């Protein structure tokens, strides 16, 4: 989804000679009046934003207001009476010149479906001013090449995990992940950008991701392609060296044989 640049209103350059800027038109859709008012207040504090005067309480109203006002960005709740946000986003994606969609919701379990609906952002309530401003900026800067890549990813069969990071809720391709390590109720995900926490259990991850990940401990899964070598420490414990990680990871005795077979290129 891209910003409808032909609908943007140009603001006159300042006397200091700064470059022209654009006002971005934003439509709010949420079934809670207080939530709509809070978003409007936050938008009013964000420079370069024009909020559509009418707001929507469900997906049907949002589609009508998009047709009428041609906004550049829609802030869209997910769980609403009548047409929900995901259904609305799918209909928006089929438009000839669709506005960008940023989901604003209290539920993180819909993130995968949201990105499949080509949303460019996914914010969890209570939404912070800084998070909203960042998502709006990202939506404005989305290039056509990024849109193509996003669409290709969303229509592929590759698995992803959903994580909440400082940038909001993100989808991390399973192919980028080297290690899942459980600690109480959360799982730490190691990937090239660092580490993030998710709340999907290891058992579910292993079932969903299949043979691309190997169980090396009751609390750890490792990507097959990330395994470099296994060695035995002086105290008799086995450890695994993993690509991209500075510290080796312990292999439980019950999994040593299966990990060794993986390293040797064989399987059970």
From TrEMBL:
Pfam families: LytTR, Response_reg. InterPro entries: CheY-like_superfamily, LytTR_DNA-bd_dom, Sig_transdc_resp-reg_receiver, WalR-like. One of its GO terms (molecular function) is DNA binding. It comes from the Bacteria. The keyword Phosphoprotein applies. This is LytTR family DNA-binding domain-containing protein. Residues 161-265 form the HTH LytTR-type domain. Residues 25-140 form the Response regulatory domain. SMART domains: LytTR, REC. The keyword Phosphoprotein applies. The modification 4-aspartylphosphate is found at residue 77. Keywords: DNA-binding, Phosphoprotein, Two-component regulatory system.
